[in-house]
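Handoff note, outgoing to incoming analyst
You'll be picking up this chain. Sequence as last confirmed:
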Amino acid sequence: MPCRCLCKQYNANSIGRQGGGGVKEPRPKAAARREASAPAKSGAREVHAPKPVDAATRTEIFRRLHALNPEPRSDLEYTDAYTLLVAVVLSAQATDAGVNKATRRLFAVAADPAAMVALGEEAVREHIKTIGLFRAKAKNVVALSRILVERHGGQVPASREALEALPGVGRKTAAVVVNIAFGEPTIAVDTHIFRVAHRIPLAIAKTADAMEAALTPIVPDAFRRHAHHWLILHGRYVCKARKPECPRCPISDLCRYPEKTAKAPSPVTGDSGSGRSRSARAG
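Most recent structure output, in case you need it:
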């Protein structure tokens, strides 16, 4: 199968991860507990409007993001659910570009669980040594691959619970995999989503898990599958942490962020499926 490059559109995943892989339901490790409880710092420090926008405004926000980018993509490269899972696990504290560079080498020699186990931890380390935490990640990749072979017939499970039982896989990693690989409408709250949600605000929460719980029921049904990627891409390329690019933001006139950097542009027009607007497509 040819590689599907999830390239920048709208110009997806610093995803935190941690988990367990024992026979019994694993107790969350320290990193996973921090992932669930710690707020996204950049968003938590910011001033935001005291009350989230109403349902009609939320719908218009997602309508515009859809019009600009009907099929949003992450920046990671993968060919199937397994290579996606490995790429997301490797992306913790690493750039997507750095992960892609490493996985091109790695997947050329091991693109399925059995091949990864046969390759071994030492060789995996050599292929991914250019990214952060490569020793721990190599150990997790080989361990999760072995579990997939022994317990799942070499296939990536479609449930979040089964994914979170794999070494190196936490709540957000599992959410990303089931969203992209299996079409489940999940929202994996990272620092970008946390920041964007607070600035608009779509919801107000103190932790990533609380923000996920707040956002999940309020995203309009028609936009649930891709809401995760729209918010991540918007935060990564437009609503940036240090200097949001409000002049080119397609939802600036709907956003209540009190520290906007410029006047709002013309609203995006057209129906939700058009993929066209008067606002320039980012990137």
